[in-house]
Amino acid sequence: MPELLRIGKLKFIIRAERKVRHHRPHIHVIKAECEAVFSLDHSVECLGYVEFRESDVRKIKLIVERYRDLFLEEWSNINEEN
To answer: In angstroms, rounded to a whole number, what is the distance separating the alpha carbons of residues 19 and 62?
Structure first.
């Protein structure tokens, strides 16, 4: 699972399994026991989260929006290989 970006303790990753193509571009954001998933396609939206505070989710969404193009490019590269 490639780590695309790290900001402080936040890790932004794409989980990829060999020969498995995901149906919707998204990114996982992990910090300790916390995790959130954000869509990357039409608009950035939180698809779900565990253990993050809502205020953290709103801040993370802004980061995902800022790096959306990078994440989408990597998503395409990873899924082309599968």
So the answer is: 31
